[in-house]
Amino acid sequence: MTRKYNFCAGPAALPESVLKTAREDMLNWHDRGLSFMEMSHRSSEVVGVAERAEQTLRQLLDIPADYAVLFLQGGATTQFSAVPLNLLHVKSGADYVNTGIWSNKAIAEGRRYGAVNVVASSQETNFSTIPPQQQWELSSDAAYLHYTPNETIGGVEFSWIPEAESPLVADMSSTILSRPVDVGAFGVIYAGAQKNIGPAGLTLVIVRRELLGKAHELCPAMLNWQTQADNDSMYNTPPTFSLYLAALVFDWLVEQGGLQAMASRNSRKAQKLYAAIDASDFYANPVELDSRSLMNVPFALVDATLDKPFLAESEAAGLLNLKGHRSVGGMRASLYNAVSEAAVDALIEFMRDFEKRYG
Ligand SMILES: Cc1ncc(COP(=O)(O)O)c(C=O)c1O
To answer: Is ligand 1 within 6 A of the CB of residue 36?
Structure first.
């Protein structure tokens, strides 16, 4: 069986070597006579994998010691509520930047718990830009400043880290582990796993320890970061199989040369694809040059009546999941870590050939 090239925005491609290891381990993990999924989360084996996953992640992201690393559940969407429940009530409000669909969802959830000040929005440009920080109107006493470094649907990305007096909270679902990041600049980083971390079912939260212990009294125990930190993310039964696969992905990242190597590779992949789109009158990307995402590349066929044949033929050519999000239409190629340069080359070749035949 040949594996196809998968450009899905999430759940996304996983490294083939990780899947092979999982296949080998499936029935009999490390000669224990059972699969990893069948072990108690209190066993030394599962606790050992969880500890090693945390250590490798700390090494990859160079996470300072005064940050807790939590492996939780509920996806990034649950953190839209957990963030205000853990941080908002100690102040009168929180600042949010609106750069598209995911920040909007975080804003809507934040509003359920307190005053939300939208300090900047790129709605006027149909979310095709990142609003420059000089234009933001930050509150003087915000509990935190929330932003979305990469909007997975719109394909817009910050190439810089915002500055704020209040703790910076980032939904890094679609950029985490794609390049090095200065974790110390953030109060909280959270991310769903199903792009660059592993399979769905796991949510990563990295939180500066001084921000723990401030949760609202009605914050559910499962969403309380302090409770989770006190229980090594095992307040209840964690998603052990997702954690095991994430640990394998972290090992794979180390083997690849770490995040600096991933950054170079990811930048090459994205630049190639944008160059191909820009060189053609047949395809178009709506995002301002400086705000283009390295992970999610939306593009439209200028003649949208060709969308259907494009999708059918790309799929037949082994290029999967290129359909854009249902809210924006068109196409989108997600180029996460496990999407190889060969996959991007094959996509570009297909796009050129399609243009020749239909252009
Ligand atoms: C930037 C961003 N935030 C949040 C989410 C929602 O994540 P989840 O499905 O893990 O709740 C996604 C999902 O794609 C996303 O891309």
So the answer is: no
Q: Architecture of 258-358 per CATH?
A: Alpha-Beta Complex (3.90)
Ligand 1 site-directed mutation target among 7, 72, 80, 152, most atoms within 8 Å of CB: 152
CA-to-CA dists, residue 206 to 66, 267, 280, 295, angstroms: 10, 25, 41, 21
> Atom of ligand 1 at shortest distance to CA of 77?
11
Closest CA to 109 of 81, 73, 77, 142: 81
Residue nearest to atom 15 of ligand 1 (CA): 173
At residue 112, what is the residue type? R
CATH of domain 17-255: 3.40.640.10
Among protein residues, the one with the nearest Cα to ligand 1's atom 16 is: 152
Known catalytic residue at 195: yes
The answer, yes or no, to whether the previous bond of 167 is cis (omega within 30 of 0) is no
Q: What is the pTM of this model?
A: 0.98
pLDDT digits (tens), the chain, 359 positions: 789 999 999 999 999 999 999 999 999 999 999 999 999 999 999 999 999 999 999 999 999 999 999 999 999 999 999 999 999 987 889 999 999 999 999 999 999 999 999 999 999 999 999 999 999 999 999 999 999 999 999 999 999 999 999 999 999 999 999 999 999 999 999 999 999 999 999 999 999 999 999 999 999 999 999 999 999 999 999 999 999 999 999 999 999 999 999 999 999 999 999 999 999 999 999 999 999 999 999 999 999 999 999 999 999 999 999 999 988 899 999 999 999 999 999 999 999 999 999 98
> Does 225 participate in catalysis according to the annotation?
no
Could you tell me the residue ranges of all domains in the chain?
17-255, 258-358
Helix (H) or strand (E) holding 71: strand 67-72
Which one is catalytic: 136, 195, 225, 323?
195
CA 67 to centroid of ligand 1, rounded, Å: 23
